[in-house]
Amino acid sequence: GRTTGTPISMIVKNENQHSKDYSDIARCYRPGHADYCFDAKYGFRDYRGGGRSSARETIGRVAAGAIAAKLLKKMGIFILTYTKSIGPVSIDMNCFNKKEIPNNPLYMPDAAAAAQAQEYLNQCMADRDSSGGIVECVITGMPAGIGETVFDKLDASLAKAVFSIGAVKGFEIGSGFGAASMKGSENNDPFITENGRISKETNHAGGILGGMSDSSPIVFRAAIKPTPSIARPQHTVKKDGT
User: What are 200-217's pLDDT values in tens digits?
Assistant: First the structure.
């Protein structure tokens, strides 16, 4: 249960893969997938699930991230991630319950919203379709001043990491896109002194100012596109255009 100082190595065996399941689409570009882009760049693509663009590719970061989270916890930095919405169903922040997150398969901190979202997903599957959603992450315990001011801004680094996940199509920190409709007097976070420490009354900035942490909780969201592999017929072409 302890590290030895040598590199930590992990392997995940993908035993539930069946290449033959993809044989019927070996010559077709699947809508919503990177087949065409891989073919255009490399002159070759792995049709058996998408290869490097497959969602399976993220398992390495999931496993390594679990270890990173343990190290951060030792430093007093805690990460809380949950599903904020699925399709049209969003959690009610007034019903937010952190303990509820692992109690439902959708990782929602709102039991009622999780039940509604599950019904919605069941209907999507019955319609041979899929749904997108939004994942929110809250990081607490970050000291002020972490991050650089130009090319290695903390928010830019977070955005790059999150966007490396293939299904992510949107990213925002704090008020995010909502800040575009706010006035400066509304979006600015007033500084105060609380318990002898400098803090903020609000957190529209999402814990990052000028590319550096400001000691407030870092709050960001990722918009996840609907799963492109769906069972209903879709229009596409082969490499020769037919």
Answer: 999 999 999 999 999 999
Phi-psi label, residue 87: left if phi above 0, alpha if psi -120 to 50, beta otherwise:
left
Cβ neighbours of 208 (radius 10 Å): 24
Do residues 152 and 213 touch, judged by C-beta distance below 8 A? no
C-alpha 233/C-alpha 139 separation (Å) is 41
pLDDT in tens, 164-180: 999 999 999 999 999 99
CB 216 within 8 A of CB 207: yes
What is the C-alpha separation between 203 and 223, in angstroms, rounded?
20
* Residue 39 CB contacts under 8 Å (≥ 6 apart), including other chains: 29, 45, 239
* Structure token digits, residue 147: 């991050």
At a CB cut-off of 8 Å and minimum separation 6, what does 16 contact? none
Q: Residue 171 belongs to what H/E stretch? A: strand 168-173
